[in-house]
Amino acid sequence: MSAKPTVVLVHGFWGGAAHWAKVIVELWRRGYDSLHAVENPLTSLADDAARTQQMIKQVDGPVLLVGHSYGGAVITEAGDLPNVVGLVYVAAFAPDKGESLASIGEAAPAPGGANIAPDSDGYLWIRQDKFQESFCQDLPDDEALVMAVAQKAPLGAAYVAPASDPAWRAKPVWYQVSTEDRMIAPDNQRRMAARMNPRKTIELASGHASLASQPLPIVDLIDDAVRELDLK
């Protein structure tokens, strides 16, 4: 029986660690008793990667990083620490060296981008009345409302920051594509996944917030990663 690594969950833009709530509960039910969900400031890619690495360094043992959306860029940046054994991307950005979220998004625009606007302080917000249709169209209205009102806006600097050497070039990777995603074009997700040569790619008929709308298949993918890693 393989040992289970510590799972460190990394959220993306317009959310916080609590976006992983359903995934956390299901992982716990399946015997993952070492779980952490990073609360990143969303102020810059460097800040968020540094905060995530602080969390990783507190773990004595192997770590499996799981990133959603912009969290994929964060684990790409932060995942080169020696105790990181794998990377799981959930409808996530996976930039190569020199790429930013902006440059990736411009190559294949997604419709939700039209509903993002900066405020006078440089934070990017999704219009509340457009949040559900953009970010989580397959969630119940009440859940979508809470996400919209409680959204954690990133600074625009995080959207345009270029990535450094990607951890996915040296670590095993798994990827989940959301086929109805309106924030990251599904074909863009497929392109990013393919160039990483993942151990496994799954596609879910879900919106961008697949971690909330389809947590069970997400945890299945994490289980697959742990089995393949075969940690002793």
UniProtKB/TrEMBL annotation:
Gene3D superfamilies noted in UniProt: alpha/beta hydrolase
GO molecular function: catalytic activity
Segments forming domain AB hydrolase-1: 7-220
Protein origin, superkingdom: Bacteria
SUPFAM superfamilies on file: alpha/beta-Hydrolases
UniProt-recorded name of the protein: Pimeloyl-ACP methyl ester carboxylesterase
Native organism taxonomy: Bacteria, Bacillati, Actinomycetota, Actinomycetes, Pseudonocardiales
